[in-house]
Design brief:
The chain has 264 residues and is an alpha/beta fold. Helix content is 34%, strand content 19%. The chain is built from 9 helices and 7 strands, in the order H-H-E-H-E-H-E-E-H-E-H-H-E-H-H-E.
């Protein structure tokens, strides 16, 4: 391990000023996920300077949101989005979620955001997140829900699986975490989204989106464009749901959020 990686986080290089209003943030899906994540995290964590790791960070599009909890570094196996992250001035390393290139007990918060479903050995990924997480530290996980919702989008994203809340919770406990909050999200859009997913699964024509898994020029999967009015409505629905998630978990949805804590 290099000397730089052994230094306290935040001393390796200056953290860039948070970037705001990425194009991704304007899309209702990302906007809703971010609002839900921050709502759950803010329920348990105060803003601070704890070191944060974004596993599967891609181009660093969540760095400016996670920065409220401390200085952020990232790891991702794909060099294409990492090149974009470095252009933005972010501290990122190339590496796998199954072998994270930092030492034991390094981070106060680990973010595993729509990443674990991409990994063949999800148990190994969760153990690695536990290894680099400090005793009493936190892991926030998001993933797609319900295998019966498997669709072309899962193929496009090179997913291995989708989870139920019980399955994800059991895997996190086995990895040595205590589940503090586990909920489905995208609850209000679930009837419409699930119906659309199931209809499209039987459609002959699939959405044509760029993906780093199939398109060498893409550094991340494109999101389907949404008409501005519908995007605004869905974004507002996501804000309402995020406010609700600050109080109670939701019984179903197209995605999952788990906030867990490493045993001290």
């Amino acid at each position: 391990m290099s000397d730089e990686r052994s230094l306290p986080l935040g001393q390796t290089r200056a953290q860039p000023e948070p970037t705001i209003n990425l194009e991704e943030d304007r899309h209702w899906w990302f906007s809703s996920r971010t609002a839900a994540l921050l709502g759950v995290l803010d329920r348990f964590l105060e803003a601070g300077e704890r070191p944060v790791l974004d596993v599967g960070c891609g181009a660093g599009n969540m760095f400016h949101h996670l920065r409220r909890y401390g200085p952020v570094v990232g790891v991702d196996p794909n060099p294409r989005p990492l090149a974009v992250a470095r252009q933005r001035g972010y501290d990122v390393q190339q590496g796998s979620a199954e072998a994270i290139p930092w030492g034991d007990d390094t981070f106060g918060l680990v973010a595993l955001l729509d990443t674990v479903e991409h990994c063949a050995d999800d148990a190994a990924v969760l153990r690695e997140c536990g290894r680099v997480c400090r005793p009493g530290g936190w892991l926030i996980v998001t993933s797609p829900a319900f295998m019966w919702l498997w669709s072309h989008n899962d193929v496009l994203n090179a997913h291995y699986r989708r989870y139920t809340a019980r399955e994800l919770g059991d895997k996190l406990r086995t990895a040595g975490f205590r589940v503090r909050y586990l909920t489905y999200n995208n609850f209000f859009v679930f009837p419409l989204a699930a119906s659309l997913i199931l209809l499209r699964s039987h459609a002959a024509q699939k959405p044509q989106l760029a993906s780093p898994h199939f398109d060498e020029d893409a550094y991340q999967v494109e999101m389907e464009p949404v008409p501005p009015l519908l995007n605004s409505i869905l974004t507002g629905v996501g804000q309402v749901e995020a406010a609700l998630l600050r109080r109670v978990p939701l019984p179903f949805g197209i995605s999952l959020i788990a906030l867990v804590q490493k045993e001290s």
